[in-house]
Amino acid sequence: MSIKIALAGNPNCGKTTLFNALTGSNQFVGNWPGVTVEKKEGKLKGDKEVIIMDLPGIYSLSPYTLEEVVARNYLISERPDAILNIVDGTNIERNLYLSTQLMELGIPVIMAVNMIDVLEKTGEKIHIDKLSKRLGCEVVEISALKGTKTMEAAQKAVELAKRKNANIPVHEFTPEAEAVIQAVEEKLGLDIPVEQKRFFAIKLLEKDEKIQSQMKTVPDVSKEIKQMEEEFDDDTESIITNERYVFISSIINECCTKNKTKKLNTSDKIDQIVTNRWLAIPIFAAIMFIVYYVSVTTVGTWATDWANDGVFGDGWNLFGIEAVHVPGVPALIEAGLTAIGCADWLQGLILDGIVAGVGAVLGFVPQMLVLFIFLAFLEACGYMARVAFIMDRIFRKFGLSGKSFIPMLIGSGCGVPGIMASRTIENDRDRKMTIMTTTFIPCGAKLPIIALIAGALFNGAWWVAPSAYFVGIAAIICSGIILKKTKMFSGDPAPFVMELPAYHMPTVGNILRSMWERGYSFIKKAGTIILLSTIVLWFLMSFGFVDGQFRMLDTLELNDSILAAAGGAIAWIFKPLGWGNWKFAVAAVTGLIAKENVVGTFGVLFGFAEVADNGSEIWGSLAQSLTMVSAYSFLVFNLLCAPCFAAMGAIKREMNNAKWFWFAVGYQTLLAYVAALCVYQIGNLITTGSFGLGTVVAFLLIIGFVYLLVRQSGTNKVSNVEVKKVANAK
Amino acid sequence: MKTLKETACGETVRVKKLTGEGPVKRRIMDMGITKGVDIFVRKVAPLGDPVEVTVRGYELSLRKADAEMIEVE
Fold it and tell me: Where does the Ferrous iron transporter FeoA-like domain start and stop, copy by copy (chain B) (predicted)?
């Protein structure tokens, strides 16, 4: 028989640190509210029979946030053998609020007052004997970070679980409130155990529909609710909340001695500077610059180049010494395959398909690890919450979070870590919106496409590159506004009521653990979905019919590949965009492996074996087959459409839901198509004066787009029907 | 009627009543802003919103739109 112990507590109370200390598991610790979104399990060190369950950090057992519902569903239906309630000793008043709710569940509870080391420093004291008496549960003092008495707390929880003594809540509300609760308890059915009666009675009074739906019989308590609401002149939910805090206020002075001298501590001093009215934004900009500069332009680029061109390329020199040349993975594998006399096609599949494809993706890993170190540091030290505080005003207008700034900034270097950086956004909707829009920002791999188009058609005009960024930003803003109003993102606005945790120096172990956990989840993805996609695309590119014979092709024979045939078949789709030639369709598809492939593919298709980064060899050929307008349309499409497989893998990983993944990728591609179509059709109208069906469609699309932008949010069915009509009319 | 939104920086006020309803109100109350509690307005974000307050011994940030629901004196 195993014993289950649930760790419950507020976000940011050191719960995850304690979990790691008790289980030795790889669990990330952050310093912003809501770091644990999933519940995680681990076995207690030294006692494999005891399972520790890490619940999401929550402030309350209300039905309104995902984390709270997850945690309380677990507590109510799974009924762990004991709850270890972790309480931040430096913030005890608000932490006890959740405790009063946990006590009512009828599960044995033990309380661990954490951060006792910090309390000692500030000269505050918590009288655990008094606290224990007033709350009716055992209380221990611990320091999860220093490891003080953590095992002792766990052992006590195990003993408590073995005794199976249900917790009887001893805290009391005002006599008037207690009378009403008593009356409701008496109405409850016999299926509810005595020790849980108070919990269900209170939830019924709070009109908690989620709990009601879980009860077999729901007694009618409308009379009690009415009586209570009249008596207190408020709604029952607020009355109960109030009662809890009144109780806490009544015991707080007795249970802890606070340091009366209101001296500013180090955290306050730091905060005075970094969120200062005038200094906050310059400091923020400076920090972002450092993060970007190190993780994207300098160390990140070296790391990526080393991984892409060295490890997964021609090899590299150890410590830069030419004599110590380490061959790249492809060379090593090639040598191995040749040695065992491997068939040509298999060698091609392994080298050009798998190694090249997965290598292109894994090449991003070193850069991501560098970025993740920064993100982990910013999160763990408490600055990330301030980022949201500083940037909230701008981003919430587009349905994004203040924290969306970081994914987008990183996304301008590479979309993959950008998408992964969205992890730091705790609100589910904001996070999804950020994941969907981050790749609109032109990443480093899209720069060759921009350079190609600018060079071939626009004589290298200065404005092409900035305009690409402008298109990306406009796409983000418009998407935010439009999506915010759709059903998938609508609903109650998430209140931005956020704790700003005290600053503290994170431990090296925590940061490295966070870095590795995030990096590893991406590597795993590269081994599955990305691997499969690259193999399929390699096959389509390397095989085809030549003179009626199906065979493997040489690199320069891409014209004859299945992909080329497929490109020819789908080229008509892109006709309204001005580049309905199969070569462009194929180039756009190969861009899915990596965006810079678009340039290389053009090279092959126009008969050049090797082209420069900006494809200057093919500028002439390209200029012949495109006009300025259709070239820009091609550029816009490639900037906005579904990103490369690596980024799609990251989207899949972060969405963690197939439906949302396809919605995101589908939306991006649709938006890209619509935008490119409007660019081509209207651009054509302006430059050549040609007016046709396409122009009409473009104008209709723009009207529809503007309508989606300006319509009222929380739309009723009528307007949805109208949208459908518009869509059908097209 | 004065609300938390109109309270100046550096001022300490006492909560009189919470208007509004549903998740937002519950969330604000869950965080410890209940009738009779003292709130110290610490600072306003550089762009003018949200605000940072000290309540029950910790720092909390909330938007002005939500602060408007908190009647103070």
Answer: 2-73
Residue in A62, A90, A94 nearest the CB of B32? A94
Identity of the residue in A389, A497, A499 whose CB atom sits nearest the CB atom of B28 = A497
User: Whole domain around residue B32: which residue ranges?
Assistant: 4-72
Q: Would you tell me which residues 463-502 of chain A have a C-beta closer than 8 angstroms to some C-beta of chain B?
A: 492-493, 495-502
Q: What is the CATH code for A3-163?
A: 3.40.50.300
- A162-200: pLDDT as tens digits: 988 888 888 889 999 999 999 999 999 888 888 889 999
Domain ranges of chain A: 3-163, 176-254
Note whether A533 and A592 are within 8 A (CB): yes
Chain A: residue nearest B61 by CA?
A: A498
Residue in A642, A641, A619 with CA at minimum distance from that of residue A631: A619
Residue in B5, B41, B59, B71 to test binding to A, most A beta-carbons within 10 Å: B59
CATH 3.40.50.80 fits A176-254, yes or no: no
Dihedral sign from CA coordinates of A361, A364, A366, A369: negative
Domain of B65: which CATH number?
2.30.30.90
The count of domains in chain B is 1
Structure pTM? 0.80
The answer to whether B73 touches B7, Cβ cutoff 8 Å, is no
Contact A277 B31 (CB under 8 A): no
Tell if the CB–CB gap between A241 and B46 is shorter than 8 Å: no
Instruction: Tell me which of B42, B51, B61, B64 to substitute to probe the interface with A (most A C-beta atoms closer than 10 Å).
Output: B61
- Taking the C-alpha atoms of residue A624 and residue A626, their distance in angstroms, rounded to an integer, is 6
**Burial profile A276-303: b = 16 or more Cβ within 10 angstroms, e = fewer:** eeeebbebbeebbeebbeebbeebbbeb
**pLDDT by residue (tens digit) across A359-400?**
766 777 787 788 889 888 988 888 988 988 998 888 888 878
- ipTM comes to 0.96
What's the average pLDDT block by block, 10 residues per block, for chain B (73 residues)? 92 92 87 94 91 93 91 92
